[in-house]
Structure formats: structure tokens, C-alpha cells
Write a structure and sequence with these properties.
The protein is α+β, with helices and mostly antiparallel strands. Helices cover 33% and strands 32% of the residues.
Length: 151
């Protein structure tokens, strides 16, 4: 066993493993060094919390939209926004210019929403507060929607 200064190893444990590190410290006397004791410390359990788990990853709803009734679609946007915020979501992209870089995909409008988790995104989509705006979106636009796990 190698003797390590307790303060340095504790710092090492805290820096690398945070509060998840447990250590074991004991005093040892070596016969060849009469009268002297050395404090030895070893890491018994050192677990680092994973930086990202499936539950920590953001989720993105990506919607391709072709608006068929622009006036009523504007009403939909006013109703949908507060429900997104209520469920912890935010708009990352809402309309804007689209440029096709590869392939033959030519979307008219793209909306991207970010949520904390996939479960939260699904909860928003199926919540009672969004039920009426969702019907309004179906009446005023043709949409294709996907949910993607991200960073």
C-alpha cells in the first residue's frame, strides 16, 4: 500500500468523484521507522456520477409544417406557446428560412421544440391544455412530427 497525504487524496477524490467518493483512512506504524506513524488513505469506493443518462438528455420535437390556413394558424401559435412553456419546453426554431443542403427535402416551415426529457415532451403533446390547440393545428396545417433524443 502506498502512503498518500490525506489532504491531497481527499482533494483528488472530491475533484474527480465529487461527493460520491468514500475513503478509508488508518494510521500504520512501520517497525523500521520507530516512533513514526504514517497516515495511509485508500479509496474504497469511488463512483463518478455519469455525465449523461437517458433521463438527463434533452428531447427535441421537430415538426415539418405546411400551413393551409395562415390566419387561423396565427391563432394556433398564440395558444400553443404558453402550453409549451408550462411543460418546461422552449422554441429553438420557429419558422424562419429553410435551405435544403442535401436530398430532395423541401420543407415549407420547421419548428423545433426542446424539452428536458422525452417523457416531458410526450406529456406536453398529450396534455389537456394543448388538446384544443392541437386540433386547431390539424385544421390549419399539414404536419409531420418526430421526437428525437439529444444532448
Amino acid at each position: 500500500m502506498v502512503a498518500i497525504a490525506p489532504s491531497r487524496s481527499r482533494l483528488f477524490c472530491k475533484d474527480c468523484f465529487g461527493e460520491h467518493a468514500e475513503t478509508n483512512t488508518r494510521r500504520v506504524r512501520y517497525p523500521e521507522q520507530e516512533g513514526r506513524s504514517i497516515t495511509q488513505q485508500r479509496i474504497v469506493i469511488a463512483r463518478r456520477k455519469p455525465s449523461a443518462t437517458p433521463y438527463d438528455m434533452s428531447a427535441y420535437i421537430i415538426v415539418e409544417i405546411e400551413i393551409t390556413d395562415p390566419v387561423r394558424y396565427e391563432e394556433y401559435k398564440k395558444l400553443a406557446g404558453p402550453t409549451v412553456e408550462q411543460y418546461g419546453g422552449k422554441y429553438i426554431v420557429r419558422g424562419g428560412v429553410c435551405e435544403t443542403l442535401e436530398g430532395d427535402w423541401k420543407p415549407k416551415r420547421i419548428v423545433i421544440l426542446q424539452f428536458q426529457t422525452m417523457e416531458r415532451a410526450k406529456a406536453w403533446l398529450n396534455c389537456p391544455e394543448y388538446a384544443e390547440p392541437r386540433k386547431m393545428r390539424h385544421r390549419t396545417a399539414k404536419t409531420r412530427m418526430i421526437l428525437v433524443e439529444g444532448l
